């Protein structure tokens, strides 16, 4: 049986997401990110192209490591200005029926009680088409602006995230029984009080008595994404994630992460097949190889090395302006790192340039050899990258039986794991919180 490929659009509610400098490209409409019509049109385009989801990245800080200043990031719009991704979802959901929305949110700065309500609300309004990309954040500027006095180390942020999700699971899965809401008009009973429960959570980071403020939504718990590839991040993914956004752009790296996370999942009693693996991919496609190369060259003209150095500094903590080209960071010299960043060649993800057949060949190869399930498609120009992919690559994938011709009905979780699977499976850690017995 041919394995179907899942495709998400990788976006962000800002001017400069990944391809820094390309906001200046004459065909790029990213400057319209503050216009709701831009997002509505994008959602309709993606659904017409049978995309699975719109994956919305986010940051809540500024990249201010490079040159010990925020100026480069601000000047070149390196993920600043950036607006709240959650505010986009309802409008996009209103004009679509099947497209899902995976929204990034950090467990470090806002309380889980309010976030649980936010996600339940969106799960209701989208009829079960919402996912949460769980991140722990890494920017010191964010810590400062949220008033964090005690900066948590990398691994402890994941400890906090573990408890954060535990609180959310208790609220989503256990606080309200399935038949709590009866809407009995004659007796003026909307909800049966005895079927709504406190969660009485008391932990290291959070005290939440409950109950949850929302009645059960179609999925109860949103589909859980995770994107950290550190040792602790992979452990977190194995415990919680239903979808993992992997780092890496070659078969060997991707396969290592896939195998490692699936192996770790067994330790938590989970079926490894209950986790979908997504790789990032950058696609520049043309009807001919020459046309694709022309597009690549036109993008390269607007590529900003300074913008990417600012992004690199924020992501890694290394200010490359302080090093000589002969210094080493890891296995690469600073000169090599800067040279790599000066070229549009897929910095963090696989770059596929060429005809629809070549792109489809490379995607199919990664799926078959690395064991991944799908891709987050990076945009260079918007909506042009997605338009080209839909018009040129999607038909080639469909011809091979690798990509849906039409959507199945159901929630996002059902589209990923099959009809009837709208709830988290029983082998997920959240299932243990489904029988909370303490009454309000």
Word description of this protein:
The chain has 440 residues and is of the alpha/beta class. The protein has a single domain, classed as TIM Barrel (Alpha-Beta Barrel). Helix content is 37%, strand content 15%. The protein contains 14 helices and 15 strands. It has helices at residues 36-48, 71-75, 86-94, 112-125, 140-145, 154-174, 231-240, 251-267, 289-300, 305-316, 334-341, 356-370, 384-399, 412-417; strands at residues 6-12, 53-57, 100-106, 130-135, 181-184, 189-191, 201-202, 207-208, 223-226, 243-246, 276-285, 328-329, 332-333, 350-354, 374-378. An 8-stranded parallel barrel has the order 1-2-3-4-9-10-11-15, surrounded by 7 helices. It has a two-stranded antiparallel sheet with strand order 5-6. Strand 12 and strand 13 form a beta hairpin. The longest helix is centred in the middle third of the chain and has 21 residues, at 154-174. The protein is globular and about 70 Å long. The model has no long low-confidence stretch (mean pLDDT 96).
């Amino acid at each position: 049986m041919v394995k179907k490929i899942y495709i998400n659009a990788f976006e962000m509610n800002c001017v400069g997401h990944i391809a820094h400098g390309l906001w200046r490209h004459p065909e790029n409409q990213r400057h319209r990110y503050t216009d709701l019509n831009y997002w509505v049109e994008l959602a309709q385009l993606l659904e017409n192209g049978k995309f699975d989801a719109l994956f919305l990245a986010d940051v809540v800080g500024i990249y201010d490591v490079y040159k010990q200043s925020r100026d480069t990031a601000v000047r070149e719009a390196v993920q600043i200005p950036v607006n709240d991704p959650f505010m986009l979802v309802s409008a996009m959901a209103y004009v679509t029926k099947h497209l899902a929305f995976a929204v990034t949110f950090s467990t470090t700065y806002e309380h889980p009680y309010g976030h649980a309500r936010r996600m339940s609300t969106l799960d209701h309004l989208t009829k079960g088409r919402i996912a949460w990309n769980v991140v722990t954040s890494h920017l010191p500027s964010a810590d400062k602006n949220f008033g964090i006095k005690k900066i948590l180390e990398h691994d402890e942020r994941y400890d906090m995230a573990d408890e954060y999700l535990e609180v959310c699971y208790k609220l989503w899965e256990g606080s309200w029984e399935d038949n709590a809401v009866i809407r009995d008009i004659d007796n003026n009973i909307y909800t049966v009080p005895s079927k709504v429960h406190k969660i009485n959570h008391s932990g290291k980071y959070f005290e939440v008595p409950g109950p949850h403020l929302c009645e059960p939504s179609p999925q109860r718990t949103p589909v859980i994404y995770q994107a950290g590839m550190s040792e602790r991040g992979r452990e977190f993914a194995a415990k919680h994630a239903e979808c993992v956004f992997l780092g890496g752009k070659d078969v060997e790296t991707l396969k290592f992460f896939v195998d490692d996370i699936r192996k770790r999942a067994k330790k938590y009693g989970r079926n490894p097949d209950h986790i979908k693996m997504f790789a990032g991919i950058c696609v520049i496609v043309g009807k001919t190889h020459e046309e694709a190369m022309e597009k690549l060259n036109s993008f390269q003209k607007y590529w900003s090395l300074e913008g990417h150095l600012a992004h690199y500094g924020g992501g890694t903590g290394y200010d490359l302006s302080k090093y000589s080209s002969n210094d080493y960071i890891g296995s690469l010299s600073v000169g090599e790192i800067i040279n790599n960043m000066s070229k549009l060649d897929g910095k963090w993800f696989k770059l596929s340039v060429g005809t629809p057949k070549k792109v489809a060949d490379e995607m199919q190869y990664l799926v078959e050899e690395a064991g991944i399930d799908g891709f987050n498609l990076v945009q260079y120009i918007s909506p042009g990258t997605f338009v080209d992919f839909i018009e040129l690559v999607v038909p080639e994938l469909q011809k091979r039986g690798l990509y849906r011709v039409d959507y199945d009905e159901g929630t996002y979780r059902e589209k990923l794991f099959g009809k009837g699977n709208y709830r988290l499976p029983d082998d997920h850690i959240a299932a243990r919180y489904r029988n909370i017995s303490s009454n309000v």
